[in-house]
Amino acid sequence: MLAVGLALPLGAVLAACGSDTSERYESGYVSGDGVATEIPPADRGDAVDITGTTYDGEEFSAADVRGEVLVLNVWYASCPPCRKEAPDLQAIHEDYSAQNVVMIGVNVRDDAGPAQAFEKTYGITYPSIPDEGAEIMYALRGQVAPNAVPSTLVIDRDGRVAARISGAIDPSVLRTMIDTVIAE
Question: Considering the entire predicted model, what is its pTM?
Answer without folding.
Answer: 0.79
